[in-house]
Design brief:
Distance between the termini: 56 Å
Number of helices: 14
Structural class: mainly alpha
CATH topology: MetI-like fold
Order of helices and strands: HHEEHHHHHHHHHHHH
CATH class: Mainly Alpha
Number of domains: 1
Helix content: over 70%
Length: 308
């Protein structure tokens, strides 16, 4: 026994080091190289002076930010904001019934496949498909002329309505998928209970369903508004000069005017706006989660009291 105790005392387990930083270092390196470093470059360039032949000159300047209060730029910014808000609202209004129908359907796999299929096609191919539909010699104009409804071509292209239509189509799946995921977890017996208590379908949807899927709605808004706000290809190909948006201004300043500080300053404005939007959405989701926990705690407490 003494020998066994002596052997146990001599055996010492090796110290286990904390390998967490080692495991996360590849992700941290990737995040720093391809996210933080480019943003830092954009921030620095926005405070530099434009070079004579393009690029930047290492001199501190606020000329790029002074242009942001120019009436022309403010007009483009307002147009971008209005277009983004309208397209996002329409997208959410279409995605809500689609997500609800998918959640209640028995063929969810088939419907999910139909939603995902557009992602298999190149972005530009889908835009050019809409050009063939809305163009002067496109499908709609040719069909209406063959039916004798119109005699001249309708100008369906190169306007704000065409931009909104194509943007809604492009980003509709990004709104449907989070809404479907949230609605699918919803307890539909609550709707039946509200109907038993005298509420009609509309009241049940507004007062029972929508508050409980608010997180999905916020996520859908986030996934649609941010990419629409920085859209470039759709306004360029479908909207023309009259539907110029901030993404087009950034591209022109980089490629045509070679005014890198101004392009960086506009990019910083977009980044700040989207970051504020994301933080606000996260705050709302956190507040809703805390409220739900409080409600669950109150219900559990009430059940305990009633049980006693």
């Amino acid at each position: 026994m003494n020998l066994i105790k002596a052997a146990e005392k001599k055996i010492t387990l090796p110290k286990i080091k904390n390998l967490g930083p080692l495991y996360t270092s590849p992700m941290a390196l990737w995040f720093t190289s391809f996210f933080l470093a480019p943003i830092a470059i954009v921030v620095v360039f926005s405070f530099l002076k434009k070079g004579m032949h393009g690029g930047v000159t290492p001199e501190f300047s606020l000329d790029a930010y002074r242009y942001l209060v120019d009436p022309v730029f403010l007009k483009i910014s307002l147009r971008t904001l209005v277009t983004s808000v309208i397209a996002t609202v329409i997208t959410i209004l279409i995605a809500l019934p689609c997500g609800y129908a998918m959640a209640r359907s028995r063929r969810q796999t088939l419907l999910l496949l139909l939603i995902i299929i557009p992602f298999w096609t190149n972005f530009l191919i889908r835009v050019f498909a809409w050009i063939n539909i809305l163009g002067n010699n496109g499908f709609i104009n040719q069909m209406l002329m063959n039916l004798g409804i119109i005699k001249t071509h309708l100008h369906l292209m190169y306007n704000q309505n065409a931009v909104i239509l194509v943007l809604v189509y492009m980003y509709l799946p990004y709104a449907i998928l989070p809404l479907y995921s949230t609605i699918d977890k919803f307890d539909f017996s609550l709707l039946e209970a509200s109907r038993d208590l005298g509420a009609n379908k509309i009241v049940s949807m507004v007062k029972i369903l929508l508050p409980n899927i608010r997180s999905g709605i916020l996520t859908a808004v986030l996934f649609t508004f941010i990419p629409i706000f920085g859209a470039y290809a759709v306004p360029l190909l479908v909207g023309g000069m009259r539907s110029y948006m901030l993404g087009n201004v950034i591209a022109d300043q980089l490629l045509k005017s070679r005014n890198w500080p101004l392009a960086s300053a506009i990019s910083m404005v977009l980044t700040v706006i989207t970051t504020v939007g994301v933080l606000w959405m996260l705050h709302l989701q956190k507040r809703d989660a805390s409220r739900n926990q409080e409600v669950k705690a109150q219900l559990a407490k009430r059940k305990r009291i009633e049980g006693v």
